[in-house]
Amino acid sequence: MAVLVGKNAPDFVATAVRGNEFVENFKLSDYKGKYIVLFFYPLDFTFVCPTELHAFNEKLSEFASKNVELIAVSVDSHYSHYAWLHTPKAKGGIEGVKYPIVSDLTKSISRDYDVLNDGGVAFRGLFLIDPDFVVRHQVVNDLPLGRSVDETLRMVDALQYYTEHGEVCPANWHKGDKAMGATMKGLEDTLVQSNLKETSSVRVAIELSTFNF
User: Fold this and answer.
1) Position 199 pLDDT exceeds 80
2) pLDDT grade, residue 198 (50/70/90)?
3) Do 142 and 172 reside in the same domain of the chain?
4) Taking 50 as the threshold, does the pLDDT of residue 157 lie above it?
5) What percent of the chain has pLDDT over 70?
6) CATH code of the domain covering residue 38
7) HEC per residue, 167-195
């Protein structure tokens, strides 16, 4: 499977569906200048897929506040997308999803992003593309494994923090946490701080264990 991180995102032109509209000649590079979360899913009218599409839609305003566009892709036709978008959530549909869903009926987009499996559907690939149209993060899940929207937001926050401040984001970093300089001094300071937190947690646990609740 290709690693696209650090490379220009493969551009495409296809038909998409947004709400009640068919969008002819939907072009990914039209979103250049914004952050893009491009994610692939296997098929319409399946099982894990609607949970993911709804989960991303529930955080749509949060993505928008970070200048992020959400775009979904599957190998279904745009007619299938339209029908699924008009199927109630209680019936397994994605009624109410507002971001564009691209039809990759020829499977060329899935091939370009190297997420097409041997069965002819896309793995659950997700690509975070920066405003310069460079892929900065990718993750690919097998078909049974749904993705974490919160982790996607964390990656957006980390990339935007690094872009703005030039500091790198250590393991388990979340917005509001201290980042670090990409130097030995920065690493040492971060590890010392991490050790202090661990020591403090152990001390609190020991102190609490002396009480009878």
Assistant:
1) no
2) low
3) no
4) yes
5) 92
6) 3.40.30.10
7) CECCCCCCCCCCCECCCHHHHHHHHHHHH
The H-or-E segment that residue 139 falls in is strand 135-141
Provide the domain count of the chain. 2
Q: Has residue 22 been placed in a domain?
A: yes
DSSP 143-158: TT-PPPHHHHHHHHHH
Give residue 114's region: left, alpha or beta (phi > 0; psi -120 to 50): left
Total residues belonging to the chain? 213
Decide if 2 is inside a domain. Answer: no
Catalytic positions, please? 49
Is position 1 within any domain? no
23 and 115 co-located in one domain = yes
**Distances from the Cα of 23 to the Cα of 1, 8, 17, 99, 133, angstroms:** 30, 24, 6, 12, 21
Cα distances from 53 to residues 50, 59, 63, 74, 146, in angstroms, run 5, 10, 14, 12, 10
Taking the CA of residue 212 as centre, how many other CA atoms within 13 Å lie in the half-sphere pointing to its CB?
0
**Residue 196: domain span:** 167-213
Burial class (CB in 10 A: 0-12, 13-18, 19+), 188: exposed
**Do both 42 and 134 map to the same domain?**
yes
Residue 176 lies in a domain: yes
What confidence score (pLDDT) does residue 195 get? 72
Q: Which residues contact 131 (CB under 8 A, 6 or more apart)?
A: 32, 33, 34, 35, 67
